[in-house]
Every structure is written in C-alpha cells, then in structure tokens.
C-alpha cells in the first residue's frame, strides 16, 4: 500500500521525510521518492527500490532542501514499479504524491494530452499534477480544490508548489493524518510514521482539504467551510501503531477487507451498461469462441478457483477445470480454453510452472494477482489486479476476498461478452456488489460474538467446516485457516459428502461450522452431525426461522445474493480461526513452517 509523508517546519525537510518514509516501510513498497522546496524551486529524487538507497543519493547531493517537502512509498497499481512511475509527479512548479486510485484517469489523461501536457509515467496519479498545474494561478489551495472536482476515485494527496508558502493535503477514501509538533506540522498516511515526532494527531476526514503551514493547519470541509481541528493524543506504542492498534497484522488485514473490496471494484463496473470494464487482452469475439476455462492455483487461491467453477458455469455458460498447480502433470489443455492463473503473490513456483506448461498447448491466458509486475503477469495475456495492498500476515485474508471479487467481475464480463447474461441480470449483480463492502463491515461488527464462540471451542482437537455450492470452497478455506494459524486439524467438506465417510469422525468433541446462508439442504447435514453429538456453529442469514432449531450457535449474516454470501461467510470463518489461535497464544502472523510466498516447487 502506498504511503505519503510531508513536512513543513523549521528544520531541513529531507532527513525527516526519509525517516518517516522508513516508518511506513511495513506497509510494503516497491519505489520511493521525495520532492523538496529548495531556493525557490523544487528538487525531486525518486527511484524504484529501497528508501535507504535513495537517502544515500540525497546525502551525496549535499542534502538539498529547506523546511518543506513531500515523500512517497509506492506499491504499484497502475504501471509497473520503475523510476518513472515512482512519485512525486511534477508539472511545472507543482509536485504531488498520491495514494488511492483515480478511476477516470484515462479520460483525464486524454483531455490533458489534448491541452498539451506531456506525460512521463504510466500512473493514474500524474493526471493530478497536471490538473493542479492547469488551475494554479498563485493560490495552491484554490487550484487543488478546482482540480479535485474532476477526480473520480479515492485519494490522499500532498501537494507542493515552489512559490507557495504552504502545502496542501486532501483526502477521500484513503487515510491521511496530520501531526502537530512544536515548530512543525507532519503529514503521513498512518500514525506510526509520526510517533517519534509527535503524539498529537489530527485525522483528516473524507472530502477535507487542508492548508498546512509550519505553525498551523487550516482544514476545510467538503463545502469549503473551516473545521476546528480536533487534536487526538496517541497512547499506543510504535509496534501497536504499525498494526493500526490491532493485535496482529492478520486482524488488521481482516478489517481492511471493506476497503480492499472497494479498491478491487473501483473504476471497473458500469451499472448503466450492466457490464464490467477489464483489460483482458481479448475481444468479445474471442470470448464468445471459448469452450472451457482451466484454472491453476495453490492453497487459498485454489479455493478461489473452486468458487469460480460454479460461477463461470452459471454466469458465462463456461465449464471450468480447477487444477492444483503442483498436480498439473500430464493434463492436456484443449483448444479454445482460457487459462486462468490465480496467485496473490504472482510468484508461487508451482503455479508459474503449471501455467508455463499449460501455455504450450496454446490458447489465451489471464492472471488474477495482487502484485503489479510480478512474474505471473509476464506469462499471461492479461492481468486483473486485486489492488488490496500488501498482505503481511502469512495467512491470506484480504487477498482471498479480493480474488473472489475479481472472479465475480470476470464472470460478469465473460457472461456479458457471451450474451449468457443479460444487461439486467448483470446490473442486479453489480448493484449488489457495490453493497458488499458495507455488508462485510457488518460481519466485522460481529467480532465479539465470534470471539466468544471461538474461545469456547479453542481446546477442540478437530474441527469440521461444511458447506454446499458456493459455500463448499469456503468450508475448505475455513478449515485451511484453522489448520494454519490455530494448528487444529480441520476438515472442509461438501455437506452432501459427510455421509460417505467422514461422519465416522464426528463425535460430541468435534465442533462443526455449518455455512448455512444458502439453501435448506445443509440443514439435513446439520441434523446428521447433531445426531452424533456434535456442537454446530451455523453461519445463517438474518431472520432464518429454522436454523436456531437445529444449530447450537447461530451467527447471523446479512441477507445478500448467494455468491456474495460466500464472501461474508469467509470473513466470519477468518475471525473464528483468528480468535481461536489468539486464545491459544500462537504466533498468528508467522505460523510455524509457513512462508508468505512459496517460490520453490
Ligand atoms: C494460505 C495461503 C496459501 C497461499 C498459497 C498460494 O493462507 O496463503 O495457501 O494461498 O501458498 O499463494 P499465492 O496465492 O501467492 O500463489
């Protein structure tokens, strides 16, 4: 996730910007840069790679700059990691750093190019620098206000102009915090960067724009009215602050899911057309000609692939084979098959190898990944980025739900191109999709209820997760999470398969998590395990009149379409395993024997 910092004060800005940028390193980055005010001009230093290396360049140049500057760590979303794509971006005497996604950047880029602006990067952010430059007539605040009117999407920005006595910051759907020092104002995306300098912070609200001087901040609300800034005293230590006050990165990342899903969707849906905009590198004619999809993935990403199986069949009329990458041995991919690699890291050796092998059979290929410029993107014809920021906890959480959302977007696009889905049907799915972040938030609000249940069964020696249809892959994912972070042997099973063997394992000591938000059939499976003495934790839809009669505990989830219910159930099972592992005192962010990225076969 990108990080922004800025400084206005009585010291030279450079060393402070580098130090604060390093304190945002934990968010992950691939390039960094600073813009410093120096003798009436702006000096920009930026490059792909480490902040420490850039700092050495700064020092070798004699530490230029005065008491005002902005800095950025970039985690690529539009355009690969490179020196050119690193921030700050400049236009004349304007320099900007930006977090977020400018959804209409292509339209703005076209417009600005017609006006004579020359772009030097592939980023969405550069349009902001030129737009602000276009409006800048000596009043930086006015220019930023006018420019932001044209911007659709999310942003946290810090803007510097060589001739302006103050900085301008603004935010919408991306965090930005101001820190109040004795003789300086600090700006950062996150509190930890500020803590060595000040514990007095002001959180900017959505839609606000601020003028930042060394001795004061003037914050204006959406209507341009001044807001009296409330200063908050931070009492956390730096370690807790990195995790945003959460006890573990995994818990933080679970809570980031509403935002992650919003980013995955941003700029990609058109409710009016009832369609999805994705750069697949394939024409509608080619999509119409497809006969199958072969999905290749590992672990959690494989579970995402399994969900795609039923969805693509229903929505796009396409049969799907889902292959565990390490077992992709002598499989012949038939002609007219779309290959889809799903890998959050983009670097999983088994997935890359299987994709390479499959590609030798010809056909079009796509990847769903979270890492811009990762190896998988070089292997395929088109990539759908999940854009949910780096995931630090080893167990995949937000990257998984964002994969599910990317799969839903892809299914709709394929369905529309193949005329298997009418615009009206697509529209209904898309309208519900836009509500998903809010629904996920409501599941997160159940955390206390889930924690109590998790702690009650934390001593279990075996767990079962059962589900049907879209919820079957989620039962596998729930069991995987329980295994990997709570070390409890767990089985994920299709409800209907229980009676074909695993029922022998069910006793009164086996908690069974029943994913029961879709359809009534699962209730007979609940009865089967209840009859063997098992306690059942049911995830059910709010207001379900029957479920409480059969389950021991009911966690009610918001009503939605079955496919989105899979996302809601995922969040609930993530919380269940998290609180189980937490009760057991386990190293949740770094479970034993596991690595975040498996680059060996
Ligand atoms: C489980 C988990 C792993 C990964 C698997 C594939 O929480 O994270 O099972 O899903 O190693 O990784 P990617 O998606 O990077 O290919």
Describe what you observe in this structure:
The chain is an alpha/beta fold and 601 residues long. 36% of the residues lie in helices and 22% in strands. The protein is built from 19 helices and 27 strands. The strands form five sheets. It has an eight-stranded antiparallel β-sheet, with helices on one face. A seven-stranded antiparallel β-sheet has the order 5-6-7-8-12-13-14. The longest helix is centred in the C-terminal third of the chain and has 22 residues, at 423-444. The two termini are 28 Å apart. The site of fructose -6-phosphate (F6R) has 15 residues, from helix 10 and helix 16.
Number of helices: 19
Distance separating the two termini: 28 Å
Low-confidence blocks of residues = none
For this structure, what is the CATH class of the largest domain? Alpha Beta
For the secondary structure, the number of strands is 27
Label the overall shape: globular
Strand order in the sheet with the most strands = 3-2-4-1-10-9-11-15
Q: Strand share of the residues?
A: 15-25%
Largest sheet: 8 strands, antiparallel
CATH architecture of the largest domain: 4-Layer Sandwich
Please indicate the count of domains.
3
